[in-house]
Amino acid sequence: MGAWTPLDVAAEALRRIKAYDPSVWISLLPEEQVMQAAARVTARLTQGERGPLMGTLFAVKDNIDVADQLTTAACPQFAYRATSTNTVVETILNAGAILVGKTNMDQFATGLVGTRSPYGTPKNPFDERYIPGGSSSGSAVAVAAGLVSFALGTDTAGSGRIPAAFNNVVGLKPTRGRLSMSRVVPACQSLDCLSIFALMCADAADVFKIANRFDPTDPYSRRLQEIPQRLSQFPTSFRFGIPPKVQRLHHSGWDLEADPHQWGGTETITVLSTYARTSHYWIFTVRERAELLGDRSSALIRVSYSFTTRRQL
What we know:
Layout: H1 6-19, E1 25-28, H2 31-46, E2 57-61, E3 70-71, E4 80-81, H3 87-94, E5 98-103, H4 137-144, E6 150-155, H5 161-166, E7 170-172, E8 193-198, H6 201-211, E9 239-242, E10 250-251, E11 254-255, E12 267-270, H7 274-293, H8 296-312
Parallel strand pairs: 2-5, 2-6, 9-12
Antiparallel strand pairs: 1-5, 3-4, 6-8, 7-8, 10-11
Helix pairs in contact: 1-2
């Protein structure tokens, strides 16, 4: 097991968490519970069990359900105690990772700045004058500050990639349907993805390989072929989406309109303009939230609007 046991790692992580910015978190698991989990993993390692995630500590964004823990989506009035655990979180726990807490976020995952939360703004570990990015602000900062080995967030329109970039960590947004979104408070269910934060690509890949499972409880989950391991396995042709108002595209002297098949097997399709995509995103988001949350959606919108307005004033 090496010089450090999971008990040692857990104790050090808890020490760092205590000493760091509390705004990273919305809730933390009791220390005793974390240490008990570390003891169970230590016993598994002693018995010869091995795995890339065994003994690693992680955090989850607080719009992802963990059984017996509160899910708030950064809105105290919306909070509920989860009765079951998100499939990805459950898979990672079974693989020997240790959960320490649930991280702060832009309220209802609506925002890319990381400042729209009544639980405070996580400090950017590189410069406190800078925002952490959002909406998965706490998850990104927890990894960047060395509080956990990896963290889970969500990404609908940049909520995973933006805070990852702002905090100099890896932010993996997988193809829709590869990681289960069951038991996650939706932002826009048809676009939502679970994202992974880690310090290195290899760490994010380890988490993804374990968490990548078909989940029949997620209507968007799908079985896909394995990701190619070598560049030679990637397709030799490409499919490009071109906004309708773009008349000509020049790339190294290539005129797309004049010769769309200049690269063998290349296919071009028409896609929505950036403005149209943005407009449709917001329309879909509001509509889908109303459908999924039912009577709670009006309260959600009132609380979110009221809080955001107060912050702006």
